[in-house]
Design brief:
Largest interface: A-B, 21 and 17 residues
Number of helices of chain A: 0
Oligomer: heterodimer
Shape of chain B: globular
Structural class of chain A: mainly beta
Strand content of chain B: over 45%
Strand content of chain A: over 45%
Radius of gyration of chain A: 13 Å
Largest sheet of chain A: 7 strands, mixed
Shape of chain A: globular
Largest sheet of chain B: 6 strands, mixed
Order of helices and strands of chain B: EEEEEEEEEEEE
Number of helices of chain B: 0
Order of helices and strands of chain A: EEEEEEEEEEE
Radius of gyration of chain B: 13 Å
Distance between the termini of chain B: 41 Å
């Protein structure tokens, strides 16, 4: 079975540009999570969805960040405009009707 | 609120040494407890879990026992290998939602 798929794997952009990260969860999983990982702050939950509905977005750092889940097989995390402090590895994870999360390989974002 | 505290790293061991990574938690109710592992350049993956007091989770030679009386879930392995070098995260789920509460991670380096 394919695991969680994230694209792109690496993204380098300049400050002020829009960045869109993509995630395809495991088929049949009905919850999806977006995380950010940095050396300074560790692993942070940004937002999670249940049945495509955002449940908790309290971790979204500011209005520059937005996330959507238009259907059960796709989600995006958008940063507009991007800033150097957004540089991090962004993970998507999904889970079925249990509490075990399955992580994607991550997108390494560098904002110059 | 709910929280997870794990020992700070990095932990450096020689091959075949005994490993303990401490994890304690604070939670209302009866949480499920997890250890995830992150190998270099990869996403997190579930290593083991325990869902009730006195349960022992085990996988790949790693073990952890859910101790309610000491609110702990320490990770142990009798003989580590170089391939165990990774970051280990302790986490809990205490509520009806799917959200996990994460520790900060403990980096393990095993030298040959």
């Amino acid at each position: 079975d394919a695991g969680v798929i994230q694209s792109p794997r690496h993204e380098v952009t300049e400050m002020g540009q829009e960045v869109t990260l993509r995630c395809k969860p495991i088929s049949g999983h009905n919850s999806l999570f977006w995380y950010r990982q940095t050396m300074m702050r560790g692993l942070e939950l940004l937002i999670y969805f249940n049945n495509n509905v955002p449940i908790d977005d309290s971790g979204m750092p500011e209005d520059r960040f937005s996330a959507k889940m238009p259907n059960a097989s796709f989600s995006t995390l958008k940063i507009q405009p991007s800033e150097p402090r957004d540089s991090a590895v962004y993970f998507c994870a999904s889970n079925p009707s249990t509490d075990t999360q399955y992580f994607g390989p991550g997108t390494r974002l560098t904002v110059l | 609120g709910d929280s997870v505290t794990q020992m700070e790293g990095p932990v450096t061991l020689s091959e075949e040494a005994f490993l303990t990574i401490n994890c304690t938690y604070t939670a209302t109710g009866y949480p499920s407890l997890f250890w995830y592992v992150q190998y270099p350049g990869e996403g997190l993956q579930l290593l083991l879990k325990a869902t009730k007091a006195d349960d022992k989770g085990s996988n790949k030679g790693f073990e952890a026992t859910y101790r309610k009386e000491t609110t702990s879930f320490h990770l142990e392995k009798g003989s580590v290998q170089v391939s165990d070098s990774a970051v280990y995260f302790c986490a809990l789920n205490a509520g009806n939602n799917r959200k996990l509460i994460w520790g900060l991670g403990t980096s393990l380096a095993v030298n040959p």
